[in-house]
Amino acid sequence: MVTPCPRPDVVALRSARLHDVECMAQIELAAFSDPWPASAFAELLSAAHARVTVAVDARDEPIGYCVLLSAADEGEIANLAVVAPRRGQGVGAQLLDHALQFARHAGVRSVYLEVRTSNHPARDLYSSRDFVAVGRRRAYYRNPLEDALVLRWDCPASS
Questions:
Q1: What is the pLDDT of residues 75-131, one digit of tens each?
Q2: What structural domains does the chain harbor?
């Protein structure tokens, strides 16, 4: 399923496909100091517990992605990245909102994630979506060594 672009500045979202994996791996390599390999993305595409969504430009080229993992009533945003030229334009917010909406419809009650303590743009995004800090993982990230904040989002109760 593809989420259409309501405005030219808003990208389309769709499920990731095998031919997206190399592009996702390149985005990952540019975004993170300890990147996932392409094989990790490829494996997740067929995993029942994973939802991998890409944000695509007008040429249907991935410019960002989000990996949501779920088990029972809990979920985890395992990975979210956007190409550098498109950061700060709402692409990450679209991907996150899509993942949270999917989680809600799948019966997930809480979604967790880890974020570098120094990653203020990501922390601001997560805070704007009502994620709250529930823990800290000391020396979780390498290159450079840094703590991770563990954040949780609780699915709002349906009225």
A1: 999 999 999 999 999 999 999 999 999 999 999 999 999 999 999 999 999 999 999
A2: 2-112 (3.40.630.30)
Residue 144 buriedness (CB in 10 A; 0-12 / 13-18 / 19+): exposed
CB 110 within 8 A of CB 72: no
Give the CA radius of gyration of the chain.
15
Sort strands 50-56 and 74-82 into parallel, antiparallel or unpaired: unpaired
Amino acid at site 153: W
Rounded to two decimals, what is the model's pTM?
A: 0.91
* 77, 66 Cβ separation under 8 angstroms: yes
| Burial class (CB within 10 angstroms; exposed 0-12, middle 13-18, buried 19+) of 4 | exposed
